[in-house]
Design goal:
The complex is a heterodimer.
Chain A (H helix, E strand, L loop, with lengths): L1 H40 L20 H31 L4 H13 L4 H15 L6 H37 L4 H11 L1 H16 L27 H10 L3 H28 L8
Helix pairs in contact in A: 1-9, 2-3, 2-5, 2-7, 3-5, 4-5, 5-6, 5-7, 7-9, 8-9
Chain B lengths: L3 H6 L7 H29 L2 H4 L1 E4 L4 E4 H32 L2 H16 L2 H28 L14 H25 L3 H9 L4 H11 L1 H16 L3 H6 L17 H8 L6 H31 L4
Antiparallel strand pairs in B: 1-2
Helix pairs in contact in B: 2-13, 4-7, 4-10, 4-12, 5-7, 6-7, 7-10, 10-13, 12-13
The chains are: A mainly alpha, B mainly alpha.
Chain lengths: 279, 302
């Protein structure tokens, strides 16, 4: 019988190694290739625009980084208030038909293929409303991807405070806005975590941007309605290109994107207490 | 729970409902638009848009069978690999891993779920592919090449390479689901198992059969998530518009066809054909998700 115990341990340990090893391999690759590119390009990697294809120069990703920050920032500006309001409503009126429909929809939205979200946003805003490819349309697509994560996390965060204070608050005759304020203050850690997770998620999101951003990587977006390009799309296009210097820029950009995403995730992790889990 | 006070407040739709109402309206409009723009191709070609293997701008006929087939093959292979790894690692984390190690691995697993998918694809194209093609994949072709499954020489992207990268990406998600389901086996039962003098091997077997139904739910959820994955697959699938029985051959999936063709689709029918494929992808993916949620709701997960 002892043999079987060892066998179970060996098999499950092997599965665990095969599950985690590729990720460390990926991180190792990105650090190895990315650091050498960054060392070669120097500080200009953050302030220059991407190089011409096929030349020896590396340039930088300043404008693409600016584009990413712009659309992610705008997406947060759209998604955060919408999510908080939705979460408050669903928490306070959990038995109402709108809240139930909303909750079910949010659970499904988390699983929407992001490419379909991108296409649909392009069809409605880019094509039908004639907005074309611009930062606003891209940020709407990202906001729709972020909203379910942030809202569900906020609902979870407010559940315990609600069960503790709701009856008392109603008995005191507090207005809805007061109750909402208390719930937000009590559940703030979870709410912030939700926003951070959503932010990390959309920072690395690529598929919806294929339909809403431009692949001219040498422009700076100067208004919310101007065309914009983003870091993940640059990685995709440059990775596929036959030019060595573009591929190198893609490795450098991957390192920067990984650092941004991983540090947002780790701060989300820290903002939660020990033992808490996020979805 | 309904209190008199709350009922009185419910008479008017409260201000805070505006957030979720906007979300509902947006999603409704978007799906309406997707269906509307899919109609030209669906009306002109009917279901042939899904069942014909021909993408021909000259005759203005577009059938995405290669992509439908590729999506099916890649998802199936990926979910098979992912489930083996996910079940194994979930058992390891619940039964054998201790305190700090378990905590660390769970954090890494969560990071893997959220890591940008385009980087998985980039790595798959430049590192995993060139590593597996001359080694494991060539070996498969040489030893098992008489099977249609491995009948082509591995060069560049392939169904199997895309499925491998996809499996790496969805395993952590499937694993965390299974970990939670596994941990919900009632304590009384576990005590009973050991009280009978059974070994850990028996305990694992009994627990797995106890959660079998929820495992199907987890599988379906991971499948629903994997089927729509775009970036990792488009970089590693090879982008060939063909139907091949060989897993080592390049192919295409629905998301990668859309990503490849969208920029160069000029006629209304070609665009519409892409949208109708996206619609099929959405409906299929969501079916898996809904089935998963129903199974999981009825199973051991709350």
């Amino acid at each position: 019988m002892r043999v079987r115990e060892v066998l179970a341990l060996t098999l499950t340990l092997a599965a665990t190694v095969f599950m985690f090893a590729p990720f460390f391999w990926i991180l190792g690759t990105i650090i190895y290739k990315g650091v050498s590119v960054l060392a070669k390009a120097g500080f200009s990697f953050l302030v220059d625009i991407p190089p011409l294809p096929g030349f020896n120069s590396l340039g930088g990703i300043a404008n693409v980084l600016e584009g990413s920050l712009l659309i992610v920032g705008m997406a947060i500006a759209i998604a955060a208030p919408t999510s908080l309001l939705s979460a408050i409503y669903i928490t306070l009126y959990e038995d109402s038909p709108i809240a139930r429909l909303g909750r079910t929809l949010l659970d499904l939205m988390v699983e929407f293929p992001t490419i379909v979200v991108g296409i649909s946003v392009f069809l409605v805003f880019g094509l039908t409303l004639g907005l074309g490819l611009n930062a606003l349309v891209a940020s709407i697509a990202l906001a729709l991807i972020m909203i379910p994560y942030t809202t569900i996390q906020a609902i979870e965060a407010m559940r315990v405070p609600k069960s503790m204070i709701y009856e008392g608050a109603v008995a005191l005759g507090l207005r809805e806005s007061h109750i909402a304020k208390i719930l937000l203050i009590e559940g703030r850690r979870g709410v912030i975590t939700g926003v951070l997770i959503g932010m990390a998620k959309i920072f690395g999101e690529t598929a919806p941007l294929l339909f809403t951003t431009t692949t001219s990587f040498n422009i700076f977006a100067n208004s919310p309605l101007s065309p914009v390009s983003a870091v993940p799309v640059l990685i995709y296009v440059y990775a596929f290109s036959p030019y060595t210097n573009w591929q190198q820029v893609a490795w450098g950009a991957s390192l920067i994107l990984s650092l941004v995403v991983l540090s947002i995730y780790l701060s989300a992790r820290l903002s939660l207490g020990k033992g808490d889990r996020y979805a | 729970m309904n209190y008199g006070v709350k009922k009185a407040k419910n008479r008017l739709i409260p201000f805070s409902s505006i957030g979720i109402l906007i979300v509902i309206a947006f999603v409704g409009t978007m799906l309406g638009a997707l269906i509307y723009y899919s109609l030209p191709a669906l009306m002109k070609e009917g279901l042939l848009v899904y069942t014909t293997n021909k993408w021909d701008p000259n005759t203005n006929f577009f059938g995405g069978l290669a992509a439908v087939y590729g999506t099916f093959v890649v998802s199936l292979v990926a979910i098979t690999i992912a489930m083996l790894l996910a079940v194994g690692s979930a058992i390891f984390l619940n039964e054998f891993a201790l305190g700090k190690l378990k905590e660390f691995l769970i954090i890494v697993s969560d990071l893997m779920v959220g890591f940008p998918t385009v980087i998985y694809g980039f790595w798959g194209l430049y590192v995993l592919g060139p590593t597996l093609n001359p080694t494991l994949f060539t070996w498969l072709h040489k030893k098992l090449g008489f099977l249609p499954l491995f009948s082509t020489t591995p060069i560049g992207g392939s169904y199997l390479l895309a499925a491998s990268v996809l499996a790496i990406m969805i395993t952590p998600f499937a694993s965390s689901l299974i970990r939670e389901i596994y941990a919900q086996v009632p304590e009384v039962m576990v005590e009973g198992i050991y009280a009978l003098g059974l070994t850990r091997w028996d305990a694992i077997k009994i627990k797995l059969s106890y959660i079998a139904k929820s495992l199907i739910g987890a599988l379906s959820l991971a499948l629903g998530r994997g089927i729509g994955e775009t970036m990792a697959v488009v970089l590693t699938i090879g982008g060939a518009l063909k139907v091949s029985t060989s897993l080592l051959s390049p192919g295409i999936t629905i998301p990668s066809l859309i990503a490849n063709q969208f920029g160069s689709a000029y006629t209304q029918i070609e665009q519409s054909a892409l949208f109708s494929l996206a619609l099929l992808l959405f409906v299929t993916g969501m079916s898996f998700i809904v089935i998963a949620k129903l199974v999981l709701l009825r199973g051991s997960l709350k």
